[in-house]
């Protein structure tokens, strides 16, 4: 009986840990949602990116835009860039801007 109690308790503890770590580190949606056009390194050198005219994230024109400019493009779209408002959460889109800065 004592054993069963301990086992239940540790199962609950493991479950909580898994839930917490998931909340702290959401998976980066870049690979699933952006990479097909912008490429793994953000150069826009994929066939779809070239066809649609995606610029490299490290191009001067992109670097000089503010974080809120980039966030607006992700949210509302621009040219052939699809809008992601409603498909991604605000924290996810903010994290993507930070990720783009890292790629730059
Ligand atoms: C279907 C292809 C496609 C997908 C998917 C896509 N993009 Fe884009 N993106 C583009 C194109 C094309 C542009 C250039 C738009 C223009 O300037 O006319 C662009 C522009 C941008 C820009 C502005 C940079 C600039 O060129 O001024 C940002 C930031 C951006 N995309 C982020 C993202 C993020 C983050 C995702 C994933 C959530 C994503 N994109 C998914 C095609 C795509």
TrEMBL record:
<dbReference type="InterPro" id="IPR008168">
    <property type="entry name" value="Cyt_C_IC"/>
</dbReference>
<protein>
    <submittedName>
        <fullName>Cytochrome c class I</fullName>
    </submittedName>
</protein>
<dbReference type="InterPro" id="IPR009056">
    <property type="entry name" value="Cyt_c-like_dom"/>
</dbReference>
<dbReference type="GO" id="GO:0009055">
    <property type="term" value="F:electron transfer activity"/>
</dbReference>
<dbReference type="InterPro" id="IPR036909">
    <property type="entry name" value="Cyt_c-like_dom_sf"/>
</dbReference>
<keyword id="KW-0349">Heme</keyword>
<keyword id="KW-0732">Signal</keyword>
<feature type="signal peptide">
    <location>
        <begin position="1"/>
        <end position="25"/>
    </location>
</feature>
<dbReference type="GO" id="GO:0020037">
    <property type="term" value="F:heme binding"/>
</dbReference>
<feature type="domain" description="Cytochrome c">
    <location>
        <begin position="6"/>
        <end position="104"/>
    </location>
</feature>
<keyword id="KW-0249">Electron transport</keyword>
<keyword id="KW-0479">Metal-binding</keyword>
<keyword id="KW-0813">Transport</keyword>
<dbReference type="InterPro" id="IPR051459">
    <property type="entry name" value="Cytochrome_c-type_DH"/>
</dbReference>
<dbReference type="GO" id="GO:0005506">
    <property type="term" value="F:iron ion binding"/>
</dbReference>
<dbReference type="Pfam" id="PF13442">
    <property type="entry name" value="Cytochrome_CBB3"/>
</dbReference>
<keyword id="KW-0408">Iron</keyword>
């Amino acid at each position: 009986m004592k054993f069963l109690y301990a086992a239940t308790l540790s199962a609950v503890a493991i479950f909580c840990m898994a839930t917490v770590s998931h909340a702290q580190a959401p998976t980066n949606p870049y690979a699933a949602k952006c990479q097909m056009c912008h490429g793994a390194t953000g150069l826009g050198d994929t066939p779809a990116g070239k066809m649609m005219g995606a610029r490299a994230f490290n191009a001067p024109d992109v670097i000089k835009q503010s974080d809120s400019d980039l966030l607006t493009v992700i949210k509302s779209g621009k040219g052939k860039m699809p809008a992601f408002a409603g498909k991604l959460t605000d924290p996810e889109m903010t994290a993507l801007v930070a990720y783009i800065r890292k790629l730059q």
